[in-house]
Amino acid sequence: MPGKAAKITITERQQDILQTFSRAVTVSSRLRQRASIVVLAFDGLLNGDIARKVGLTHRQVGRWRRRWADAWDRLVTIECCESRVALRRAIEAVLTDEPRPGAPAKFTPEQVTLILAVACEPPEKSGRPITHWTARELTDEVIRRRIATSISPSQVSRYLREAALQPHKSRYWLNTTEKDPARFEGQVKAVCDTYLAAPERARTHQTHTVSVDEMTGLQALERIAPSKAMIAGRCQRIEFEYARHGTLCLIGNFVVTTGELLRPTIGPTRTDADFAGHIEQTVATDPEGSWVFVVDNLNIHCSESLVKLVAGSCEVPTALGKKGRRGVLKSVASRQAFLSQPSHRIRFVYLPKHSSWLNQIEVVFGVIMRKVIRRGSFTSVADLRTKLLNFIAYFNRVFAKPFRWTYTGRPLMKAAA
């Protein structure tokens, strides 16, 4: 004779969670099915009736009823002592299959470790003239080294996935050329402190903190045939060949406190006069305010024209000297020191050498490249200019917001020879 069905008891909160599971489309079908078994059993249905409703046998229904009954005291303790989230996780665990032993492993942990070690080596070390491993080539190398006598590429790929190793992927990284780590850290701190202090300076001292840089060589490329629109199963197709109509340079301002792009300069060249004129038109938006510009070490960012502009705007009484000979204008270092003086109403904060990734506007330049340039088709430089200005206005309406700056990194050190 069949045994007696396990008695089901559930609390109001447990019932609410079980009903949520039984209706949810984002959980597994097995979890929905088992949650329904417990709810229906609590409503008084017999195992045979429940089995017909959920599509299982009455023995399977009885098994999940017993599982619930055995776990109920523990669930009540969790409900009384812990959060609803913890209770939900505990109920999900009760209604989940227990781990199964599976087939015995074909490869020892030592073999798997050696396979992953090979994956982390550059292929050149194995005498292969390639830049990165594929699963097939890695498998061939594992067999050649006799780490395993036989193994499939799919098995090697599985080990790579489990170890979160992706030899087919890479990301670019720009390392500083500054040799002195202490100097680099000091420069990074100056830049990061400028970003962090920007909101308070804007509120109390009417100081605008602006990230500035140039996006050069923007080509007005016109595709020689129209693009084909995306359809089901096929992405948009863009004509490969194009006609060139010239290039432009975008000098952009990213306001650190608001995330807006302020008064861009778009022209054919990037000279010291172009940059000085760009700073002059930017300052003109608030002639009485204070300005802090974050820039890299490009020579036009510490030019004679820029020094004279700042000296005139800040009414600096000292003589500037002569470029290459004496005074403030003597060298790049002396001009940078003058332009960086905190006492000036207009001053510049310089990034460490070869570290433009510290400049916030570089993130925005990436957005412009992806959303305007890469897939764009431009009939002329005037068309390119118009579309850039339209996007900048769109960016300020839709995307503009300040970055949450968290960088506290350290320079990468060269490997010992």
Question: Please, could you describe this protein's structure?
Answer:
By secondary structure, the protein is of the alpha/beta class. It is 45% helix and 11% strand. It has helices at residues 12-23, 29-42, 47-54, 58-81, 84-94, 109-120, 135-144, 153-162, 181-205, 272-283, 304-313, 332-339, 361-373, 381-398; strands spanning 207-223, 242-255, 265-267, 290-295, 346-350. A 5-stranded mixed sheet has the order 3-2-1-4-5, with helices on both faces. The longest helix is centred in the middle third of the chain and has 25 residues, at 181-205. The model is unreliable at 411-417 (pLDDT under 50).
The number of helices is 14
Going by CATH, the architecture of the largest domain would be: 2-Layer Sandwich
Quantity of strands, as a count: 5
The H-level CATH homologous superfamily of the largest domain, spelled out, is Ribonuclease H-like superfamily/Ribonuclease H
CATH topology heading of the largest domain = Nucleotidyltransferase, domain 5
What is the CA–CA distance across the termini? 80 Å
CATH first level of the largest domain: Alpha Beta
Number of domains: 3
Largest sheet: 5 strands, mixed
The ordered string of helix (H) and strand (E) elements is: HHHHHHHHHEEEHEHHEHH
Give Rg in angstroms: 33 Å
The secondary structure category is alpha/beta
Strand content: 5-15%
Low-confidence stretches: 411-417
Shape: elongated
| Average of the residue pLDDT scores | 91
Q: What share of residues is helical?
A: 40-55%
The spatial strand order of the largest sheet comes to 3-2-1-4-5
